[in-house]
Amino acid sequence: MNQHVTPQPKLGASFYRLWLSSGLANLADGVGVVAWPWLASLITRDPLAISMVAAAQKLPWFLFALPSGVITDRLDRRKLVVAMDLVRFVVLMTLAAALLVPGLLPQDPIADFPTATLYWLLLAAALMVGFAEVLRDNSAVTLMPAIVPLERLETANGRMGSLETVMNMMIGPPLAGLMIGLALPLAFGLYGLAFAFAGLLVLSIPGRFRTIRPDERHWVAEIREGAVYLFQRPLLRDLAIGLGALNAIDVMLLMGLVLYAQEVMGLNSAHYGLLLTGLATGGLLGGLLGERVIRRLGPSVCLRLTIGGCCAMALVILLMPFSVAVWFALMLASFTGMIWNIITVSLRQRMIPPHLLGRVNSVYRFFGLGTMPLGLLVSGLSVTIAEGFMPRSQALAAPFALGAVLSLLLLVGIWKRVSPKALKDFAGQ
């Protein structure tokens, strides 16, 4: 007897517009992965100064994540995404124009901490792009459950993650390496234009995306409501704190890789961009296969494997600094990281009430992403301190030794907190 199978609802045109927009925005971010630290390394070889540029871009996740949740829940989320893409376009095109000014970029990088005008302009631009990124990303995540059926969230997030990874890590970094080789302003110009087109795609999505909710109160009270919701649910709290530690370790490793790739592995900008395609390949596979892997292994095992993948990446870079080995280590870490994102993002989108989603998500991201500036600074400081008692080539490996130890400690600390029972209890709430 034939069994009737209920067809799954379609994702719809609005989803694919958001999907393409996210792809373009992540292409821009992928260009930035190489462009920001590489430009800093052309100004100075000081590890702390270079890490400060990346930290400036991530500092808004600590400073602005909580207020961004209130803004997201109060205003039209589609319009916020468009506005923040426009802000980033303007800032990056201004920086690209500044790079055309003769003599602003030094012919040779200095060894000490820089005082050049371009360095401070770079810091300011990174900070402004970071603030726009926080509000844009928080708004975009809350758009998803408004345009996608709840039963298709894992599928939608997997497809979104796959495209984002391809653009952010597979196409963006190599493209940036090639553009930097041709003309540095061209890389930042492309960076800005991608955001402009991403904003236009979101602008074309029909509908009103402002939630119906109780009367507005003081923004501090609204943030508190989101924080209380998160901390009353131990699994959400533990995932947020665990993600914060994981992200701090991850960015510490990737920041350390910038100078390590140049001075120890002997890579140029194009080779470095190609090396980062390991992240892209892993993320793409994770997005495509994640739903099946989660069903087969279970969410608990997958979350634990993510931290193990981060530890493996640190150890391989430390002990086997060869391009092929490092590429595969980056692929593994990205594969497991993408699966972590599919599990946790879908969990939040499904379980958090729509009128609270922006604020709870912002509190989650405050803990989950606000630690990244600390990881970036620790990366630069660890090299600076290590240089005081060991050769520079060995000192450049300090972030990877520290990352391996910290990821092991994190795995021990979170093991029971993401047990099958903890996940099942939360789903039953």
Order of helices and strands: HHHHHHHHHHHHHHHHHHH
User: Which strand-content bin applies to the residues?
Assistant: under 5%
Runs in which pLDDT lies below 50 for 5 or more consecutive residues are 1-5
N- and C-termini, Cα separation? 38 Å
Give structural notes.
The protein has 429 residues and is mainly alpha-helical. Helix content is 79%, strand content 0%. It is globular and about 55 Å long. The two termini are 38 Å apart. The N terminus is likely disordered.
Quick summary of this structure?
The chain is mainly alpha-helical. Helices cover about 80% and strands about 0% of the residues. The two termini are about 40 Å apart.
Question: Can you give keywords for this protein?
Answer:
19 helices, globular, mainly alpha, 429 residues
Task: Describe the secondary-structure layout.
Blueprint: H1 13-43, H2 47-58, H3 60-63, H4 65-74, H5 77-98, H6 117-147, H7 153-182, H8 184-203, H9 219-231, H10 234-263, H11 269-275, H12 277-297, H13 299-319, H14 323-351, H15 354-369, H16 372-386, H17 392-395, H18 398-414, H19 420-427
Helix pairs in contact: 1-2, 1-6, 1-7, 1-8, 2-6, 2-16, 4-6, 4-9, 4-15, 5-6, 5-8, 6-15, 7-8, 7-11, 7-12, 7-14, 9-15, 10-13, 10-15, 10-16, 10-18, 12-13, 12-14, 13-14, 13-18
